[in-house]
Amino acid sequence: MSSSMLTPAQRYAAGALFGLALHQAQIHQTRPLGSPSDDDPTGERTSSGSSSDSVSEDPQLWVHESSGLLRPVFRFLEVDSKAWTGLEETAGYSPAKHHVGAFLRLLAEESGDSPSEAPDKERALANGVDAMASSMEKTHVDYNSKKKKHCEYEHEWREKFSTAETQSKSEVANVLAENQQETTHSMSEVANVLPESRQETKGNAASIGHASVKSHSKLDETPPEEVLNLLMLSYSRKVTVLYELLSACLANIPEHKKKSKQQRAGYDARHRVALRLLATWFDVNWIKMEAIETMVACSAMALLKEAESKEENQSEQSSWAKWKRGGIIGAAALTGGTLMAITGGLAAPAIAAGFSALAPTLGTIIPVIGAGGFAAVASAAGSVAGSVAVAASFGAAGAGLTGSKMARRIGDVDEFEFKAIGENHNQGRLAVEILVSGFVFEEEDFLRPWEGQIDNSERYALQWESKHLIAVSTAIQDWLTSNLALELMKRGAMMTVLSSLMAALAWPATLLAATDFIDSKWTIAVNRSDKAGKLLAEVLLKGLQGHRPVTLVGFSLGARVIFECLQFLAETQDHAGLVERVVLLGAPVAIKDEHWEAARKVVAGRFVNAYATNDWMLGVAFRANLLTQGLAGIQPIEVPGIENVDVSEMIEGHSSYLWATQRILEQLELDTYYPVFDNTPLKP
Amino acid sequence: MDSPSSQESVGFDYLFKLLLIGDSGVGKSSLLLSFTSDSFQDLSPTIGVDFKVKYADIGGKKLKLAIWDTAGQERFRTLTSSYYRGAQGIIMVYDVTRRETFTNLSDIWAKEIDLYSTNQDCIKMLVGNKVDKESERVVMKKEGINFAREYGCLFIECSAKTRLNVQQCFEELVLKILDTPSLLAEGSKVLKKNIFKQKPPQPDTSSSSCC
What are the coiled-coil residue ranges (chain B) (predicted)? Predict the structure, then answer.
């Protein structure tokens, strides 16, 4: 009955590996790979087998039954339910490295009971995935033009705003402030040269990054024995396994006894993180996984559409029964009426507009992967067909995010709107990125910092409270150009922001008074960002992103919005599994008295805090709390699991985040599972 | 009660990891079921690995036994190798009515133990199951005793079906573990750590420094 290409034993192994990856991913939340705490004898401690309790006693674990993360996958894979406890315990009980190799071997084995056409199917699927991946890569041909555009933007803004800050620095060196003109000039020259040299360094950075990933994976995850096992495992088998696991993650099979309350339709961020780790173990490029995601999504949409058109010809009752059987009811209930929107022909773009709207997407896929490939894909997805939560949930997503002008919902926030960026919309992408600017001079600054970035997820920029943000940004910029600020910086230029502000208790009252007029605007902006954060959390909880894992990136007050959002999510019951990754840049958030640990737990994958020790503006604007509480934007956060990245060298001042963010993101290589930054993160 | 550890649900003095190995169909899962829930039923072959917890009072100690029941089928053999690690007790089971299950113990399973077990002192136990089928018996008790003597392990014959000697089998094994100081030390770590509930040791230098 199963349409799976894998034998039962292989599916068992796939389920086990997924469980192991899921548990490891949870461990890495607080103990990232390669961190010093990774070396402590934890591994040995648990491996002695005597000191850890059984999984069934710890509902906090992702592999525990109550999380609803693992068992549905087993069920989809048709793993015998008697084997589930064993798998869960195996995943949670002992260090993964002892088991990964064994399960890989089981996966690689060809057993007699597999259907003879399976290898061909696997190969067809793998070819399809390859083709899809390369077509996704091709869409990046406009990379250079984008890059150019971004450079222009950088150029423009750098000229406009960085003069004050950079100049004051060069001034300290020269103690010369008169020929502003000249300085600006040389500045723009530097900016001209930079893009080219940057390309090169970028290449280097990337290779370093990769090297470090490799060494990581060798050091921490793959003993030599497993490398051998990996060689035994064919590429097409790996792709097939990932494909089936993803299908299993997305499928929403109705459960008879609802034991787990937390079950949610759609694509859980924790699943995606586990798949990312698994792909790393498999040594399969992440873009392949993204291609798989798109293929599953598209075929699922197509199948759903087909079911829908059939349904029209049938009596209402029988079709209802069919929907129910397919498990789509569950999806509808959980996606909060998005299915209504679909069938009601509302704004949901991909599905409601009918097959014609879908056709371009499918139309691009079929020629790319070939009809044979598509058949393989469809048959693999066929098992998902009746039970697709995804199609229903993400079909409406575009409308969900961009369509929601939630401004009126919380009276205090005047503006809160998502704007689509990039061309990945309605392309069946299963990941969403929300990008939040927080230091802006005009409305364009909400979009332009993010436009040049190459990414395969569906991307949205959040435009919020532009009036206040522009006001506070401009005020700060004006203040920075004032003589008082120059004076102030000259005094402290040799120190880091933190140390000099500490020393600045002795600042003349006049200097401090000068910042007063920033303070009022700043206070308003901070207040609004907290509220916007809450609003963002509500959007995510409502599933307007289509129940897909979200990556949140923000700088300045935008980072604060994200942090507040995470804190709010941490307070809710249903928080886990929404957010996959977070990057905060120059975040005006205190370190003490804030719930960083709780916020960390909400994020399934990487959590990056990028800080610059020379970020004057942030220090000054935030100084009220600084002395006692610490500040995320200018110093590392000592919370386990948070990657601290020092970007001082890339940042000339707070406004630099407008154009430097993209480069920082590139160097972070968010698509790798391991913490990566081409500069080794500095320890304080 | 030298090292009690506070547990939310059930307190226990020691936690031991036990492992069941042996050919397919010798009754490992039945033995475990008989021990943990005093019942017997026809079971289908184990897939991969199963796991059960049993709390028991043996030798005056409160014990928590984490018992791993492995599949005997050839195709899963590759998996079981990783479960030897850290086990304090290993139970080798054979079927007294099938000679090859007995010979395979020395040909295959004993070698696996040597290869994969990380515990020098770990206690091994030989168990001849299905003695209720006395009429079909082909492996004599004497042979079992000789094997046990040769390999330096405990020996018992039992029946998962009639529950004859099932409790004794586990008890003897555990008593022997309790007699072995190094194993006792492993099982009695007070630090029953849960890595997610507990903060990992981090130098608390956080933001108090000024540079």
Answer: none
Contacts of A502 in chain B (CB under 8 A): 210
Nearest to A562 by CA among A433, A390, A373, A400: A433
**The predicted structure's pLDDT at residue A387:** 36
Angle at A395 between CA A329 and CA A310, to 5 degrees: 60
A105 neighbourhood in chain B, CB within 8 Å: 78
Shortest CA distance to A621 belongs to which of A467, A462, A497, A460?
A497
Residue given tokens 């009695």 in the structure block: B188
Q: Which of residues 119-178 of B touch A (CB under 8 A)?
A: none
Give the β-pairing of B49-58 and B61-70.
antiparallel
pTM above 0.90, yes or no: no
Chain B residues within 8 A of A42 when measuring between CB atoms: 195, 200
What integer pLDDT is reported at residue B135 of this predicted model?
A: 94
Please give, rounded to a whole number of angstroms, the shortest distance from the CA of A204 to a CA of chain B.
30
Cα A442 from Cα A471, distance rounded (Å) = 10
Residue A551: per-residue pLDDT: 94
Q: Interface pTM (ipTM) of the complex? A: 0.84
Give me the torsion for CA of A595, A600, A601, A604, rounded to 10°: 160
Q: State the pLDDT confidence band at A514, using cuts at 50, 70 and 90.
A: low
Characterise B130 by phi-psi region: left (phi > 0), alpha (psi -120 to 50), beta (else). left
**Strands A550-555 vs A579-585: parallel, antiparallel or unpaired:** parallel
Dihedral angle of Cα A63, A225, A290, A70, to the nearest 10 degrees: -10
| Structure token digits, residue A90 | 């195996």
CB atoms within 10 A of CB A436: 28
Lowest mean pLDDT among A139-148, A473-482, B169-178: A139-148
Tell me which residues of chain B, numbers 57 to 86, contact chain A at a CB-CB cutoff of 8 Å: 66, 68-69, 75-76, 78-79, 81-82, 85-86
Per residue in B9-42, pLDDT (tens digit) is 457 888 999 999 999 999 999 999 999 998 898 8
Contacts of B81 in chain A (CB under 8 A): 102
Q: Nearest Cα to B33, choosing from B69, B72, B58, B77?
A: B69
Residue of A nearest to B211 (CA): A499
Residue A629 burial (C-beta neighbours within 10 Å; 0-12, 13-18, 19+):
middle
* Chain B contact set for A496 (CB, 8 A): 211
- Find the residue in B nearest to A497 (Cα): B211
* Residue from A515, A548, A549 nearest A624 by CA: A515
